[in-house]
Amino acid sequence: MTGPTRRIVMKYRYRPMARLSRREFTISVLGTAAAATRVATATQQQTGSAATAPPPPSRSAADTLAGLTLSEASARIKAGTITSAELVNACLSRIDLYNPKVNAFITITRDLALTQAKALDAEQRAGRLRGPLHGIPIALKDNIDSAGVRTTAASAVFDDRVPSEDAEVARRLAAAGAVVVGKTNLHEFAFGGTSATSYYGPVRNPWALERNPGGSSGGSAAAVATDLCYGALGTDTGGSIRTPASYCSVVGLKPTYGLVSIRGIIPLTLSLDHCGPITRSVMDAAMMLNVLGGYDRLDIASVEHAADDYVAAIKQPVSGFRIGIARAPFFDLLDADVATVIDDALRVLAKLTRSLTDTMLPSTRDITVGAETYAYHEENFGRMSGRYMIPTRRALQSGANAKAGDYIRAHWRLELLRRTIDDAFRGVDLVVLPTRRRTPRTVDASIKREETDVPRNPELENTGAFNVYGIPAISVPCGFTSKGLPVGLMIAGPRFSEGKVLALAHAFEQATEFHAKKPPIRPETPVPPLAATEEGKE
Questions:
Q1: How many angstroms separate the CA atoms of 198 and 196, rounded?
Q2: Which of 44, 73, 156, 192 has a beta carbon 3.0–4.6 Å from 387's, enabling a disulfide?
Q3: Distance between CA 451 and CA 239 in Å, rounded?
Q4: Which residues does 150 contact at the CB level (< 8 Å), separation at least 6?
Q5: Which SS3 state, helix, strand or coil, does residue 419 take?
Q6: Which of 364, 389, 359, 361 is nearest to 377 (CA)?
Q7: Residue 307 CB: number of other CB atoms within 10 A?
Q8: 3-state secondary structure at position 85
Q9: CA 185, CA 497: separation in Å to the nearest integer?
Q10: pLDDT tens, 134-157?
């Protein structure tokens, strides 16, 4: 590798696959370890990558290395006590073992990652470190374009789509020396919150394999939680970074709208789409945001903003922070266990900060811009609607009925709200609330709920309003239910207040131990079978 702009193009070799029903495909994916991976391992065309790679580490050594935080791994690479190749091999070893259980990856870029690691290790030995992400294995959600690597958005619609250019965020990470070990599974086209609706089979929660990991960035969160990579990118249109972060007990940051480029990312609803890091610590998220943030003039959503050092900002004192508790409607109908965990978290915050007071945030109920989703899919949906999963197909059919006037008026309201949202923070510096009001459903229940057309009560969620506001919001681990399921605390602030948001999240993390707990998944952990449905019997 001669520089950060060099492209390594890979050629894929696919095996023909018969057309299966969703359930037949899912069971074939998850029934055995060999079928469960169903990853298209990218075959890199340069010579010497796999042949000259160091031997894989032992099981215990791989677990120890892969279990480091990103910041810990970065410090060891800087000190020369570990190599990128060793980190990549540790992650690949765990991917081989655990991806058949959690189904976090669609594509594993094994040979490419080893080749990049080898080149980055040579740079390190020559005294050329690109920065804190030099040689660090990460993953990209599979709706983020990667040059020469298939990018599917977890849909049969794009099962043969290979971009020719990187998304801007992928380009920035590559230039910083990060090594992509694979593309992660997601809810099809990021159009849902469970990651159960995917052409490549549902993602499973490493804390309880029978449950969903949240979505739509479920594969990214599951991969980070299971120590398959040190950080991952997710996208967030209604909570798709923060929900899986909460359900998988990791850190998930949705930045201010426009701070991180979304060019080269398959859109869901462009006016609400955000991209951000999912990591095992708040410091790791700050390190990634330092690389990801910045103006992109070719991205129509990008906003010019003075560069910040989020790693430095994370160290600011929080004792003077005034914290607002956004109770209504975000605390309505909480699960009892979630309520208990959040109350405990608030007591910790009370000791860390100046004050806690109840506060209100503006309603977003009359702002609906879903017509943008149909606008992106209109051509493909007209030609190949049958290749979309059932829930996505149904949602797009509804979007086809949107009226231009309704959309335009909603967009006017969206723009006005974003101009004035900082007014809600006149009496407080930041707000806190539960990331999710309830714990995740089982994968079976999620699939059934999404595939059936039965009218249901509204889905309770706390995350979507913050996409409308366009303000920074982070989810951090804050405890566990009586069944051992993770609970997340969301911290949000005015536009471009990432430094304060990260500082409070970091202070909370340092005052508690929840982030240090690992999922109970083991090599011998069985994968619960999916229940048979009528579709599976077709």
A1: 6
A2: 156
A3: 21
A4: 12, 40, 42, 106, 107, 159, 160, 161, 162, 183
A5: helix
A6: 389
A7: 9
A8: helix
A9: 30
A10: 999 999 999 999 999 999 999 999
Tell me the C-alpha distance between 208 and 144, whole Å.
27
Return the closest-CA partner of residue 282 out of 58, 64, 66, 71: 71
Amino acid at 11: K
| Two tokens, residue 274 | 């955000």
Residues with a catalytic annotation lie at 141, 216, 240
User: CA angle 191-194-200, nearest 5°?
Assistant: 75
- Three-state DSSP state, 344: helix
**Nearest one of 200, 14, 12, 243 to 100, comparing CA atoms:** 200
Task: Note whether 87 and 21 are within 8 A (CB).
Answer: no
Bridge partners, residue 480, by sequence:
486
Determine the Cα angle at 7 with ends 4 and 11, to 5°: 150
Q: Determine the number of helices (DSSP H) and then strands (DSSP E) in the chain.
A: 18, 13
How far is the CA of 232 from the CAs of 40, 177, 200, 274, 307, in angstroms?
19, 14, 19, 14, 22
Quick check: 112 pLDDT over 90? yes
Residues above pLDDT 90, as percent of the chain: 84
Could you tell me the two tokens for 236?
């967030």
278-312 pLDDT, tens digit each: 999 999 999 999 999 999 999 999 999 999 999 99
Find where tokens 């906003």 sit. Answer: 303
Q: What does 266-292 look like in DSSP terms, one character per residue? A: --SSTTT-EEEEEESSHHHHHHHHHHH
Contact criterion met (CB below 8 Å) for 283 and 476? no
Which residue in the block uniquely carries the two structure tokens 């990853």? 39
Contact at 8 Å (CB) between 244 and 215?
A: yes
CA distance 252 to 272: 17
SS3 469: helix
First to last CA, the chain: 50
| d(C-alpha 209, C-alpha 461), whole Å | 22
505, exposed or middle or buried, with CB in 10 Å at 0-12, 13-18, 19+? buried
Write the CA distances from 424 to 79, 362, 411, 429, 494, integer angstroms.
45, 8, 20, 10, 8
* Three-state DSSP string of 169-223: HHHHHHHCCCEEEEEECCCHHHCCCCCCCCCCCCCCECCECCECCCCCCHHHHHH
Query: Which structure tokens are listed for 75?
Result: 């410090």
| AA letter at 94 | R
Contacts of 81 (CB under 8 A, 6+ apart): none
Q: What is the pTM of this model?
A: 0.90
